[in-house]
Amino acid sequence: MSANTGTKAIIAALSANLGIAVTKFVAFSLSGSSSMLAEAVHSVADSGNQVLLLWGGKEARRRPDAKHPFGYGRGRYFWSFIVALVLFSLGGLFALYEAYEKYRHPEGIESWPWVPVAVVVVAIVMESFSLRTAVREARPVKGKQGWFRFVRNSKSPELPVVLLEDTAALLGLIFAGLGVGLTLVTGDGRWDSAGSAAIGVLLVTVAAVLAVEMKSLLLGESPAPEHLRAIEEALVGEGVAGVIHLRVMHLGPEELLVAAKIEAEPGLSLADLAAAIDAAEARSRAAVPLAQTIYLEPDLRHAAA
Asked: Mind giving me the DSSP string for 226-277?
């Protein structure tokens, strides 16, 4: 998936979150609802996260230089990791703090009581359109694997991040709606606090999932098993009898680093060996276009043993 893939989903989510954040802050100022404040801050955090994802995609397109000879592809993983931190701190921890304060000093919703309900309904509609855009963008990339497996296995962070954020936003709105609705019905502000607490737990959980996945990508993940097999098979050919050791790692979503010790056929001249290595690299790139950076070391199997 290219750096541009998912940009439409990010922009759709950013547009929705900016509009929703404003309406939520208006609803909070009119009603004093804790759930509305938690959701408003959640939308602000999501908006900032989408800006970070767009910046990460732009930075990743920088060409390699002397300081970063393998390029900037992993920048997309770094900014996605920052997204997880923002979601955890600005979104989740703030919602939990607000829930705690509201539980200590519970208040009913007396001013403009049905404004938060109307805002929740409108926000659910807007978030649904954003999530639909993300799902539509992700479906061709996802293939036949399930959504959970797609989030776990994707080497491109943008769509999984937007999918998780939009899903969390919809669930958060449901929690906010329940908290506000039960407060209006019972007059007990602790229900509003419970809605805020549920939002906080949800955001902390999503942030933890994102942080774990982005950490794994930052450390360097191997490619999909089918890509690994294809590269290993492609390396074998005229002049190359087999593969002794193979290490493949993502330098970014669209680039693989391939390092292999190959078994050269005995008796090859230096020129023939160089030609065999060049041919092996060409076959590997043809089999898996992501394999852009390849280093091959010729050896004899008995010598390597």
From this structure: HHHHHHHHHH-BTTEEEEEEEEEEEEETTEEEEEEEEEEPTT--HHHHHHHH
Task: Give every CB contact of residue 224 below 8 A, 6+ residues apart in sequence.
Answer: 153
Residues 133-163 have pLDDT tens digits of 888 888 888 888 888 888 888 888 888 888 8
Using the 8-state DSSP alphabet, how is residue 88 labeled? Answer: I
Contact status, residue 231 vs residue 243, Cβ threshold 8 Å: no
For the chain, give the percent of residues with pLDDT over 90.
Answer: 31
Residue 1 pLDDT > 50, yes or no?
no
Q: What does the block give as tokens for 22?
A: 């404003």
CATH domain 225-304 topology = Alpha-Beta Plaits (3.30.70)
Residues forming CATH 1.20.1510.10 domain(s) in the chain: 7-219
Collapsing DSSP to helix, strand or coil, 152 comes out as: helix
pLDDT digits (tens, 9 = 90+) for 42-76: 888 888 888 988 888 888 888 888 998 888 888 88
Structure-token pair, residue 12: 């759709």
Q: Which residues are bridge partners to 243 per DSSP?
A: 262
CA nearest to 190, candidates 117, 116, 106: 106
Taking alpha carbons only, the member of 146, 174, 164, 176 closest to residue 204 is 164
Question: What is the architecture, at CATH level 2, of domain 7-219?
Answer: Up-down Bundle (1.20)
> In angstroms, rounded to a whole number, what is the distance separating the alpha carbons of residues 289 and 283?
10
Strands (E), the chain: 240-252, 255-264, 291-299
Domain with CATH 3.30.70.1350 in the chain: 225-304
Contact yes or no for 159/131 (Cβ under 8 A): no
Task: Please answer whether residues 208 and 71 qualify as being in contact, where contact means their C-beta atoms are separated by less than 8 angstroms.
Answer: no
- Residue pointed to by tokens 């292999």: 260
